[in-house]
Write a structure and sequence with these properties.
Layout (H helix, E strand, L loop, with lengths): L2 H39 L1
Length: about 40
């Protein structure tokens, strides 16, 4: 693998990790809201 390819792979990996963090935050927020909705229904 060339240095360029390796650098690109690293970039994509760190980008993927950042995306995962964002999705986890959204997911937690959604689950939290969902709990509130369920509680308010019962």
């Amino acid at each position: 693998m060339s240095r360029e390819q390796i650098r690109w792979k690293e970039l994509r990996r760190s980008f993927g990790i950042e995306l995962n963090k964002i999705y986890l935050k959204i997911d937690k927020q959604f689950v939290y809201n969902y709990d509130i909705i369920l509680i308010s229904y019962y």
